[in-house]
Amino acid sequence: MHIDEVELRLIRLPYRAPFKTSFAEESEKHAVIVTVRSEGVEGYGEGVMDPFPHYREECIAGAWHLLRNAFAPDLLANGCDDPAMLAARWARWRGNPMAKTALELAVWDLHARRLDMPLRTLLGGKRTAIPVGASLGMASIEHTVDNVRRHVEQGYKRVKLKIEPGWDVDLLAAVRAEFSFIELTVDANSAYTLADIDVLRAIDGFGLHYIEQPLHWDDMVEHAHLAELIHTPICLDETLTSPARVKAALDLGACSVVNVKVGRVGGLQAVREIHDLCVQRGVPMWCGGMLETGIGRAHNIHLATMPGFVYPGDTASASRTYARDIVEQPLEAHDGVMPVPDGAGIGVTLDRAFLAEVTEQVEVVRL
Fold it and tell me: Whose CA is closest to 240, among 207, 209, 275?
C-alpha cells in the first residue's frame, strides 16, 4: 500500500471539568491527530503523550520530532502492505511507543477502510457493543459520592476512583457505605510505596475488584512483593510498555490483572500479542483510557471487542469529558454499554470545522 502523505495536527480541546489524579490536574486535552492518506482514502490515529512527561517519559515535542523525521518518512518511503509489520520495522528506534502508535493506528484505520471492513474484524473482535466503566478524578468526598451515584444510575458496569496517600480509606469508606454492591476499583497512579503497607492492607477491607498501579510507575519487583502482602488483586498500568514487559510482570507475579492502553504498549499489533498471552494464561484484561478524543476512543472501542477483554474498560461516553468532540459521530454509552461505531475502519469521521477551531499546529509530511 502506497502512502501519499502524513498529516500531523496538534489540537487543544477543553475538558468539561478539570480531571485530577495523584500526579496532575488537567483542564484540557493536548493530542496529536495523525491522518494518513492513500489514493483518496484517509485513516486516523491519535497520540496520547502529554505536553510534559507526567504519565510516562514521552512528551508531545519529542513525539512530533520523531513522527516528522523518522516514522512518517519511513512509511512514505516504504509503504505498508500489512500494519502488523510496522512495530518490528520501527524497532530500530528504541522506545517511544506512544509516538509509534499514533501513526500505526492511522495505518490500521486506513487499511481497514480500504478493505471496507470494521477495524474490529481485522483484530478478531466479534462483539458489536462492549461494557464500559467510569473513571472519576479526585474531588471532595461529598462530590465523589454524588458522582458515583450518578454513574451507577446511568448503568456503568464499574466505577474507578483515583486515590493517593491521605485520600483513600475515608473516601472508600464513604463510597462503600452508600454502594456496597458495585464493582469498585481504585487507581493510585504510582502514589504509594511499600512503606504505606498499613494503608494498602486497610484498602483490602473494601472489597475492591483490583487496585491499579499502587507503586512506582516502572517497578515490577516491589509490586510482586506487595502482591504477597495484600489480598486485593494488583493491576498494572504505567509499568506495562510492551508485550515483553507484560510477560515479565506476569512471570514475576507483579500483577494478576492487565490494563491495556494501546499507546502505552506500542500499537495494535502489540495489543494483539498481549491479548493472546493473557488469554493463554487466563489473565483478565481491560482497555484503559487516556481521556482520548473521538479518534482514540473509537480505536479503543474496536480493540476492546477482542474476546480477552473481559473487564469493563475506561471507554465511557465522550460527553462525560468533552462538551464537543472532534468527530461527527456521538460515542455514547447506554446503560453502561458502548456500541461499536458502524462502518469501515474505526467508523468515525472528523468534524473538520470544529477541528480547525481547536488546532494549534499542522504539518503535512511528503517525500
Answer: 275
The single-letter code of the amino acid at 221 is V
Nearest to 33 by CA among 288, 367, 363: 363
Contact 44, 109 (CB under 8 A): yes
User: In CATH, what is the architecture of 5-116+349-365?
Assistant: 2-Layer Sandwich (3.30)
Residue of 29, 160, 162, 247 marked active site: 162
Q: Which CATH superfamily is domain 121-339 in?
A: Enolase-like C-terminal domain (3.20.20.120)
Active site residue 162: yes
Residue in 100, 157, 160, 261 annotated catalytic? 261
Q: How many CB atoms lie within 10 A of CB 91?
A: 10
Burial (CB count <10 Å: 0-12, 13-18, 19+), residue 216: middle
- CB of 322 closer than 8 Å to CB of 296: no
Q: Which residues share a beta bridge with 33? A: 9, 46
From CA 353, how far away is CA 227, in angstroms rounded?
A: 50
Global confidence as pTM: 0.95
Residue with cell 506512544: 98
Q: Kindly report the backbone phi and psi dihedral angles of residue 352, in degrees, each rounded to the nearest multiple of 5, phi listed first.
A: -65, -35
pLDDT in tens, 219-244: 999 999 999 999 999 999 999 999 99
